[in-house]
Amino acid sequence: MSRKFVRLFAVSMVLVLALGFATSVINAQDKVIVGLSFSDFETPRWSEENDIMTAALEALGYEVVSQQASHDPVAQNNQIANMVTQGAKAIIIVAQDADAAATAVDEAAKEGVVVIAYDRLIATPSIAAYITFGLEKVGNGQAHGVLTALGFDTENPGPTDVWTTENPVKLVKLEGDPGDNNAQFFEAGQDQVLQPFVDAGLVEIVARQNIANWDETNAVVAMENILTAQDNKVDAVIAANDNLGLGALQALSAQKMAVPVSGQDATAPGCNSIAKGEMTVTILKDYRVMAPQAVQLVDDFLKGVQDPDLASYKLSILTGKTDLEGEVMAKYLPVTEVTIDNLYEDVVVSGFQSYDDVYQDIPEDQKPPRPPEATPEA
Fold first, then answer.
1. Termini Cα distance of the chain
2. Are residues 197 and 293 located together in one domain of the fold?
3. Statement: residue 372 has pLDDT above 70
4. Single residue among 285, 310, 343 that ends a domain in this structure
5. Structural domain total, the chain
6. In degrees to the nearest 10, what's the CA dihedral of 306, 307, 312, 316?
7. Is 369 helix (H, G, I), strand (E, B) or coil?
8. How far is CA 301 from the centre of its chain?
9. pTM for this entry
10. CA separation for the pair 189, 193 (Å, rounded)
């Protein structure tokens, strides 16, 4: 082989490698970035939904940048701004504070970024869409489950053998974080079911308190203080999620009290508590269905496709703030009320929580049969 040929071959290879490198750089530059911004990962479901959305986005060819703000709204806004700086074309946000996040969203929208408010509304018409579950339906289910456990017929409010106008239910309400727009809708849903019983003098709400950050420890302290103030005269607790319900149960257990208690999210600890006969009801919001739908919304918006299930809602109605102007597109998904009666089928057989987690510490002879693996309905 001549030296001239070797030189030509070497030059050719350099050109080929250079072209290959240039192509790879272009492809990397062409890859669209999507941000995932979470309020925290202390709430178990958020880290799981992060994993689902990341996998789904990467499968569609997107590059994912994910961060969580440890319950700090300022940190979250900074993280969102950094995602925009990095070139994110879309961001899915679980907001720590609905009002605070609006500032970062408005700035992102000015740069043409598609923002999806995930499960928590962000109070600005700058969001491209809001996807969540039926919020008032969550509250309806919580109140229905607790009242049913007390022996009431929720369709026909009237006294029972135990609860009368002379002996009304003394009810405690532990509501969610005041910065979470969803909390007020859960509460409104609860009150829709409770109000006829309150009006009839059969239920007395003796305490109502919001719990910062949906934190279980905060719920324990709040419930302890309420029990002290009420001299332990509490007959039921409607807690807005499983963290708060489990916190209430800790405080009640310390006083050797057992009363109906609600939750939300069908977490593994919450479902295990139901299996043990402690928590009365939780609300299943199947995020295995919602997380992929949020990803699909991003993909649709970036490709100029409209989801037919999106509908327009006034911000003033969604937030309860009459002075708020503008509308947003929103999509609501169904929820399931879970008690001991349907825990096995709707939570375990469906694969939402594992058999071992739900029936942890339950005697073998009291466990249902172990089901085959299952997948949720889309």
1. 64
2. no
3. yes
4. 285
5. 2
6. -110
7. coil
8. 22
9. 0.81
10. 7
Residue 361 domain-assigned (yes or no)? no
Pairwise pLDDT comparison (146 vs 43), residue with the higher score: 146
CA distance 173 to 210: 8
Residue 5 forms part of a structural domain: no
Contact call for residues 154 and 193 (beta carbons, < 8 A): yes
Structural domain harbouring 34: 28-127+287-333
Identify whether residues 179 and 268 lie together within a single domain. yes
| Pair (122, 149) in one structural domain | no
For strand 63-68 and strand 33-38, is the pairing parallel, antiparallel, or unpaired?
Answer: parallel
Give per-residue pLDDT as tens, 289-337: 999 999 999 999 999 998 999 999 999 888 878 888 899 999 999 999 9
Going along 201-335, which residue ranges are E strands? 203-210, 236-239, 282-284, 311-314, 327-333
Give the end of a domain, one of 252, 285, 318: 285
Tell whether the torsion through CA atoms of 281, 287, 293 and 298 is positive or negative: positive
Task: Evaluate whether 279 touches 242 at the Cβ level (below 8 Å).
Answer: yes
Give me 39's structure tokens.
């309020």
Q: How confident is the model at residue 39 (pLDDT cuts 50, 70, 90)?
A: very high
Task: Find all residues with CB under 8 Å of 150, minimum gap 6, and list them.
Answer: 160, 162, 163, 169, 235, 236, 260
- Whose structure tokens read 């496709």? 305
The CATH number of whichever domain residue 43 belongs to comes to: 3.40.50.2300
- Position 368 in a domain: no
Report the distance separating Cα 51 and Cα 362, nearest Å. Answer: 30
**Is residue 32 one of the residues assigned to a domain?**
yes
8 Å CB contact between 229 and 207: yes
The answer to whether residues 143 and 227 belong to one domain is yes
How does pLDDT run across 208-261, given as a tens digit for each residue? Answer: 999 999 999 999 999 999 999 999 999 999 999 999 999 999 999 999 999 999
Q: Find out whether 89 and 113 touch, Cβ atoms under 8 Å.
A: yes
How many whole angstroms separate alpha carbon 329 and alpha carbon 157? 37
CB atoms within 10 A of CB 229: 12
Largest CA distance in the chain: 109
